[in-house]
Write a structure and sequence with these properties.
Chain lengths: 217, 134
C-alpha cells in the first residue's frame, strides 16, 4: 500500500501548534499595546473652533485655572467657560483680532462655541472634580502641564490603572491646598512628598475608594 | 505483456476541427467583421494586461477583509462642549438649584421648595421655613 502522506507530515501537528502559539502571542501583544487608552487617547489634540492657547493665558499671563474653570471647586463637573468669561477681557484686549471672531459671534448671537471635547470619563465612571481639587489633587495629576500646552492635549491615559495608581497611594500625589492650581509646583524630594503626603492624608482623612463601586456606581 | 495501441497521428483538420463559416463576411474576413469580433466583449475587456481575474479577486477580497478588521469603526467620535454664551447667575453645572415657591391652598398658600437640575424641576417639597408647611 502506498503512503498517502509523506514522512514530512509527521511534523505537521507540532508545526501547527507552534504557529498558533506565535499567532496568539502576536495578537496578545498587539491588543495590549494598541487597544489601550495609553495608545488611543494620549496625544489627542483636536482642532478647536478658537485656537485657545493655555500656554499664553495660564502660562505666560499666569491667569489662575479657576478664573475660567470657575466651578471646579464647587461642582463635580468642571465647567468650560462661557463666552461672557472670554469677553470680560477680550472686549478690551485684541477686540479686533480675526482669531477671536467666533467668540464675538457667539457673544452677539447667544450661540455656544462648539469646543471639541478632549478629556472624557466614560458614562460608567463617576468622577467628581471638586472632591479631588479640595483634597490636594492638583489639575496637573490628570491633565498634565496644561500651562505649557498651546492647544489642549490629552496628556495622561485616563485608564483605570491610572486612577487606581493614585487611589492606592494618594500620599505620593496630594499636595498643599494652595499649590493645587500651581501647575509648576513640584515637591522638593520624594521623601519630603511622602512625609507631607502622609501627614495631609491623615489630617484630611483621605481615604480614596479602591473598590469597584467607588467609581462604577 | 506490453500492448501498445497505435493510434494514427491526428491530421491537421482533426486538431483544428472542421471550420464552418457562419456568414459571408466571416468567409471574406472583412474589416467590419474583424472589428466586430474584437468588440464582442464590453469596451476595455480586451485591454487588461498583466492582470487576470483570479489575481483581481484575490487582491480585492484581501483588501475588503482588511477594511473590515482595520479598525474603521474605532475612531473616536467627536463630541462638543457647548458652554453658555452669557453665564446666567447661580447656575453651577452638576449642582441642583433650589427655588422657593408656593402653592395656593384654601386658607393659606403652602410654601414649597423646588429642586431643579439643569433648569428642569425634579422635586417639590414643603418648605420647612414657611409659615404653613405642605
Amino acid at each position: 500500500m502506498s503512503t498517502i502522506f509523506s514522512k514530512e507530515a509527521n511534523k505537521a501537528p507540532i508545526r501547527i501548534v507552534i504557529a498558533l502559539l506565535m499567532l496568539g502571542a502576536t495578537v496578545t501583544a498587539g491588543v495590549t499595546y494598541y487597544m489601550t487608552p495609553k495608545y488611543s487617547r494620549v496625544g489627542y489634540q483636536p482642532i478647536q473652533p478658537v485656537a485657545f492657547e493655555h500656554s499664553l493665558h495660564a502660562g505666560e499671563l499666569g491667569i489662575d485655572c479657576r478664573y475660567c474653570h470657575s466651578q471646579v471647586e464647587k461642582s463635580g463637573h468642571s465647567n468650560v467657560p462661557s463666552t461672557s468669561t472670554c469677553m470680560n477681557c477680550h472686549n478690551q484686549v485684541k477686540p479686533l483680532s480675526e482669531k477671536l471672531q467666533p467668540v464675538r459671534d457667539s457673544f452677539a448671537s447667544g450661540e455656544a462655541i462648539p469646543w471639541v471635547q478632549v478629556h472624557k470619563a466614560p458614562d460608567y465612571v463617576y468622577f467628581n472634580h471638586s472632591v479631588h481639587v479640595n483634597r490636594g489633587v492638583s489639575c496637573y495629576e490628570c491633565h498634565g502641564q496644561v500651562n505649557e500646552m498651546d492647544e489642549i492635549r490629552h496628556e495622561k491615559s485616563f485608564s483605570m490603572a491610572f486612577c487606581l495608581e493614585c487611589h492606592r497611594n494618594p500620599e505620593e500625589r496630594i499636595r498643599p491646598l494652595d499649590k493645587v492650581f500651581d501647575l509648576d509646583w513640584h515637591p522638593e524630594s520624594k521623601e519630603q512628598q511622602l512625609k507631607d503626603g502622609n501627614e495631609m492624608k491623615e489630617h484630611w482623612k483621605v481615604n480614596p475608594p479602591t473598590s469597584c463601586s467607588g467609581c462604577h456606581r | 505483456m506490453n500492448k501498445f495501441l497505435k493510434h494514427p497521428e491526428p491530421s491537421e483538420s482533426d486538431l483544428k476541427g472542421p471550420h464552418y463559416w457562419k456568414s459571408l463576411d466571416e468567409l471574406a474576413e472583412t474589416d467590419g467583421f474583424k472589428n466586430y469580433l474584437h468588440r464582442e466583449f464590453p469596451e476595455g475587456a480586451s485591454e487588461l494586461d498583466g492582470v487576470n481575474r483570479r489575481q483581481f479577486m484575490k487582491v480585492m477580497s484581501a483588501s475588503f477583509a482588511f477594511a473590515g478588521v482595520g479598525l474603521t469603526g474605532c475612531r473616536r467620535p467627536e463630541k462638543y462642549i457647548m458652554p453658555f454664551s452669557q453665564q446666567p447667575e447661580e447656575i453651577v453645572h452638576g449642582k441642583p438649584l433650589y427655588y422657593a415657591s408656593a402653592m395656593p391652598h384654601r386658607k393659606d398658600p403652602i410654601a414649597l421648595v423646588a429642586e431643579t437640575h439643569e433648569g428642569r424641576p425634579t422635586k417639590l417639597e414643603g418648605n420647612s421655613r414657611g409659615s404653613t408647611q405642605g
